[in-house]
Amino acid sequence: MPALGRLVAQLPASLEAAVLVVQHLAPESLGQILVDRLAKQTELVCHLGAHGQHLHAGHLYLAPADRHMLVKDGHVFITKGPRENHYRPAVDALFRSAAAVYGARTIGVVLTGMLHDGTAGLEFIKRAGGITVVQDPQEAEFSSMPESALSNVQIDHVVPLSSMGPLLQQLTQAPAPQQVAIPPDILLEAQIAERVVGSTDDVEKLGRQVPLTCPDCGGSLWEMQHGEVLRYRCHTGHAFTADSLMRVTQDSLEESMWVAVRMLEERKNLLASMSRRGEGFGSPQQEERIEELKVHINRLRQFLLNGAAGRPAEHGDMQVSS
């Protein structure tokens, strides 16, 4: 919110664009509180995104908690569709939707934040002829989102937050860029997000099925064959960049290993109880098995604790599209 507040404070009511904002929120968050806070920092008219709202220049729309915010026919489109990159709302979904509708008239902005949501979305905008802007990662509080975008997408402008407002005003006042044909895969994925389509046949038009399963629903995954950002999605609509999929599978593996630690602990305790009651005969072999289990448990726990210590802390991410 601090970075977002600094940006919108630079934007005048006369801005010749609608501003749509996605920030990752907990499902129980009250987005209206954030809208009220932003309204005190900017001349833009601020709204909590609602289905069917007409998009107006000089207005800001914040995605509600636990809902994707898309755009369609000049209106806000709110849906509780499948998560993308394990998020809802997801900025990739918004960026793709804007690229499908507005093409070269879309400006995608990624600010400070953790993980990778927004990277694929910026590529959607770029492929549709739009403009991409990223906060300079050297000044970002959390640099991984800007760095991810810069590593995977040809970004048009990399600027500090203090220069971003004037840049956006300049870009929106410039003559509209020449429209290009929107790639068919972007249009199809936008329709899937709107739940207009969404079958196995539709996903097969976008990529090839691979021997991986969706961590959200357990379905098969397809590897997308368009663009430079490696991406995956299942036919129900869950979508991931390769980086976010790796992150989710790492979390699942970690959870499974902790379950293994618990099961080994329970087996050790059961063997110890049997030995005390004479059921294991209290033999040296039984004691040796218990000691072996202790060694395995300690090694596995130490491995997990060392791995967890090296993980970055979670933090809310924020992204803006106008």
UniProtKB/TrEMBL annotation:
Gene Ontology CC entries for this record: cytoplasm
Its Enzyme Commission number?
A: 3.1.1.61
User: In its UniProt record, which GO terms are filed under biological process?
Assistant: chemotaxis
Q: GO molecular function: any one?
A: protein-glutamate methylesterase activity
Residues annotated as domain CheB-type methylesterase: 1-175
Species this protein is from: Hymenobacter oligotrophus
Q: Which SUPFAM superfamilies has this protein been placed in?
A: Methylesterase CheB, C-terminal domain
Keywords per UniProt = Hydrolase
Q: What is this protein called?
A: protein-glutamate methylesterase
Question: What is the enzyme's main class?
Answer: hydrolase
Q: Which reaction does it catalyse?
A: [protein]-L-glutamate 5-O-methyl ester + H2O = L-glutamyl-[protein] + methanol + H(+)
